[in-house]
Amino acid sequence: MSVDRRREGFPRFAPVTEEERQESFRAFRPPMNWMDPPEHTVARRSVRAEFSPGRAEALRPRVQEIVDRRLELMAASPRPVDLVRELAVPVPSLVICELLGVPYSVHGHFEERTARMFSHATPAAERTRAAHEIRALLAELVADKERDPPDDLLGRLIAAGRQEGTADREAVVSMAFVLLVAGHSTTADMIALGALTLLEHPDRLAWMLADPARTPSPSTNCCGSCRSSTPPRRARRWRTSRWAASRCARGGRGRPRPRGQP
What we know:
mainly alpha, two-stranded antiparallel ribbon, single chain, 2 strands, globular
């Protein structure tokens, strides 16, 4: 199976010609989630240490501070409070911006363009333009960090590339793009859907509140329920698709390689 949309014949999800589709890939490097091995393997290895259990645990105090502050602001706000706007979106946005070293002052720029990118109501040309605008801002940010790489994820990627002799600005920009867009949008969806799931199952909510130490396990189950019963809003509109690049078997029967869709 392949996720590489640069392959000729890969199903198209917008009314564009094959030439227009290929031109969009020549304009910038596809993100990691559109890569096949070994290209994907190399890209994933470059950030594997950044998302290790130890690194995640080190982030816990700062993430807790961010969550606590957002909850304080919600508690002091007039009722009703919009959970998505006041908690679900700001928390992952703040975390991923700090992780990457992206100024939070520009998060609105990314939020608005990400929404356009993932909406099927947005014309194909406008979705492409939104992606280009996000990448253009990230390219400026990466170029600025190259002068004196800081101790953040992007700075460490730049430093590692120089040390290994594989410095590649486009690769860093592409990684920043997929982590920024996917890193905050998916988590925002799951926070909101997790809250909804618990409200729809008050017995589970009461069980968790009775002993906060139980939280990790039911939280995992809650996320599983969200994924299986209510896919994230953006995922419903724009999934990471896979294409049978060669003949494959399903249910014990061979299936031909599907043709691209017009």
